[in-house]
Here is the input.
Amino acid sequence: MPRAPKVDHNLCKGHGICYDVCPADPKVYEIKGDPPKAWVVNPESCIECESCVANCPEGAIELVDIEEAGPKPES
Ligand code: SF4
Here is the structure.
């Protein structure tokens, strides 16, 4: 089972570091909303490098089975 990120929006402060470090094309994340949060818009493009997990200063990201990834904007 491929993995992709799950973001805890109770911890996410919308810094956008996950977006900046993500090497995937297209990027896995979008940062949007008020207050801004990281949304998982392209989980299928994740290459499981864990750069976002390692660089999130809030510890808000983990990799999970792709079916559990998110949150997605519509969820
Ligand atoms: S694990 Fe890597 S490829 Fe996947 S979302 Fe995080 S930074 Fe992007």
In short: Helices lie at 17-21, 51-55.
